[in-house]
Specification:
heterodimer; A: 264 residues; 11 helices; 0% strand; B: 328 residues; alpha/beta; Rossmann fold; Alpha-Beta Plaits; 2 domains; six-stranded mixed sheet; four-stranded antiparallel sheet; 14 strands; binds adenosine-5'-triphosphate; binds magnesium ion
Chain lengths: 264, 328
């Protein structure tokens, strides 16, 4: 007698199933929906006033795009970190690990769902900016912009994955996830140009995908060559995926040794 | 590949310690030896019961068998597959159901929960609909599957858990207190469901605190106390361990600990257990002497009001009590 299930569930199936499932459950959380709806309004307002007072009206779109990405990063961080804590609290984390699907692909699917919803944040920010503050929506390279956006979403999602993998083992990693929101906004140049920060901040930003994602998006929207930044974003995503795979395998094993999968 | 005739589930000298710490400033590390050398083997199609008091190590043993905990030492195999080295292959062959309210996605419907796990277990899309329909029917949730789980009663959650654990039609099923919190009628239906699993050729490991349930369902039982197996055998064989004993049941209104201690020391008494009832305590006193010990027992209560007193044949529960109390 054999089980009807499969010993190795194909990665694409696990990713798709988890993406759909997470979209469904996230949109049923009123808190998450509220954050996703309200944040772009707040971000675009902040962006507007910051650049207004800086006396550089030409960079309004520049600021609005940064604000949009800040939204994606927040929802990715909140989503990926909160997700595992939530699964553990609910008692479902063990069930996920006990299934024959690789936990890695489960996480990829769920993390991509949170960054996808974060995409709305970009759209919302741009739209709100256009309606309320007359931020122009003319794109220099529309085709590349359409490429740069999902590449950036994936770049942020895979970075979220690397962070999420640590939450498998550490029960109190939530504090860490809250701590990472603002510093990443800063060193990746989403909030203010990195040139305004101390010298050590820039190299830190180089290994973080939002740095390159926002460059690719800004160049394709405002003019300039977005291709190198786009390639860097894709390259970093691949690197995060490789690191994430190793981390998750390691942390999953450690969690089974240290008994941290369940709350007891 | 499973070896023909080899046990389906095999635990060999399993041990597991937990490291915990207490205090926040002066942290002291503690080691809890939850499972201390547990061995047993379950044959194909058997319903095997793991009984033991709270904290005996039942859940810990199960979690090692289902790959969620790595044993501190010892080995375990399911269908010949090592639970540490071949964890993923083991996972696809087993179902896991635990009792209690947790382990479900509350905001989503029962159906969404089942569909999601069917995907995680790689059940083919064209199979899913039929399989989920069948299982909903079997656990009696048909018609309620579109409601959000947060509105489900305890019994409904437990049924949903069972359906979830069986989605991929696993040949081996682990049930950790599956009837906890379920009303008597529901629990009876669930027992019939559990019994039907072995009829389908599945191998089942069950833990429960209800002795009649274990007696009715299990082919064989291992009694585990303080992390060790203290007895193993068919319900009949375990009962025969106390066959020469008599049990005197005494209803007392407000018994104190001293009286119980004195009871334990009465010549011939081998075990005493206390069950809290509404107004009274039901004491079950095992002895090798027979009903004539009763006056000696009744003399141990200083003035407490005594209700019904009966002497009877021992049951599986008495065997269990004598085993887990025996060497403490
Ligand atoms: N994650 C953990 N960390 C530390 N100690 C633990 C952990 N899980 C269980 N224990 C301890 O290990 C021992 C065995 O627990 P276990 O849950 O296996 O018992 P059990 O037989 O299932 O009990 P119950 O009948 O109450 O479910 C107990 O002393 C328990 O406190
Ligand atoms: Mg238990």
């Amino acid at each position: 007698m054999r089980s009807q299930g499969r010993a190795e569930v194909p990665a694409h199936r696990v990713i798709l199933a988890n993406w759909l499932f997470s979209m469904k459950s996230l949109t049923k959380s009123s808190f998450f929906v509220l954050v996703t709806v309200l944040q772009p309004l707040i971000f675009s307002t902040i962006a507007f006033f910051m650049f207004k007072s800086g006396g550089r009206p030409g960079s309004l779109l520049y600021a609005a795009l940064g604000a949009g990405l800040m939204g994606i990063w927040s929802s990715t961080l909140f989503g990926s970190g909160g997700l595992i804590q939530w699964e553990r609290f609910q008692g479902t984390l063990e069930l996920l690990i006990a299934s024959p699907s690789q936990f890695m692909w489960i996480l990829v699917g769920s993390t991509l769902a949170t960054s996808t919803l974060g995409l709305y944040s970009v759209a919302g920010t741009l739209l709100w900016g256009a309606v309320a503050f007359d931020i122009p929506l003319e794109l220099a390279h529309p085709a590349l912009f359409v490429l740069a956006l999902p590449a950036t979403v994936i770049g942020l999602g895979t970075l979220g994955l690397v962070l999420a993998s640590t939450f498998v083992l550490y029960r109190h990693a939530n504090a860490l996830s809250n701590l990472l929101e603002y510093p990443v906004w800063l060193v990746t140049g989403l909030l203010v140009p990195v040139s305004l920060l101390p010298g050590w901040a820039a190299p830190l930003g180089w290994i973080l995908s939002p740095t390159w994602g926002i460059k690719a998006i800004r160049y394709s929207a405002l003019g300039g060559n977005p291709v190198p930044a786009l390639l860097a974003t894709v390259g970093l995503s691949v690197a995060y995926l490789v690191i994430g795979t190793r981390f998750i395998a390691y942390f999953e094993r450690r969690a089974r040794e240290d008994a941290t999968l369940a709350l007891t | 590949m499973p070896v023909v005739g080899a046990p389906v589930v095999e635990a060999i000298d399993l041990r597991r310690t937990y490291k915990t710490s207490t205090g926040s400033l002066k942290r002291k590390s503690l080691e809890v030896e939850a499972v201390r050398g547990v061995s047993f083997a379950i044959e194909k199609g058997e319903l095997f019961g793991l009984l033991g008091p709270n904290g005996a190590g039942k859940t810990t043993t199960i979690k090692m068998l289902i790959t969620l905990l790595i044993p501190t030492s010892g080995t375990a195999r399911v269908l010949g597959l090592d639970v540490v080295k071949d964890a993923r292959a083991v996972r696809s062959q087993i179902g896991y159901v635990f009792g209690g309210d947790r382990g479900l996605y509350e905001r989503l419907s029962g159906l969404d929960n089942l569909r999601y796990f069917a995907e995680l277990y790689g059940v083919e899309p064209h199979e899913q609909k039929r399989r989920i329909g069948e299982l909903l029917e079997m656990v009696g949730l048909t018609g309620r599957e579109k409601e959000r789980v947060e509105g489900y009663s305890k019994g409904m959650r437990q049924r949903l858990h069972i359906a979830r654990g069986l989605l991929h039609d696993p040949p081996v099923v682990f049930l950790d207190e599956p009837t906890i919190g379920v009303d008597p009628v529901g629990a009876r239906e669930m027992r019939a469901m559990i019994a039907s699993l072995t009829d389908q050729g599945k191998t089942v490991l069950l833990t429960t605190h209800y002795m009649f349930e274990a007696d009715a369902l299990c082919d064989r039982i291992a009694v585990i106390a303080r992390g060790e197996v203290v007895a193993q055998g068919t319900p009949g064989a375990l009962k025969s361990l106390v066959a020469d004993k008599t049990v005197v049941e005494i209803e007392v209104y407000g018994v104190n600990d001293e009286s119980i201690e004195r009871l334990r020391r009465v010549e011939g008494v081998s075990a005493v257990s206390v069950e809290e009832r509404d107004q009274l305590q039901l004491l079950m006193v095992q002895s090798a002497v027979g009903a004539e010990i009763t006056p000696a027992l009744l003399a141990q209560f200083d003035g407490a009001k005594i209700g019904r007193v009966v002497a009877r044949e021992p049951t599986l529960e008495d065997a269990y009590i004598s085993l887990v109390e025996g060497d403490s």
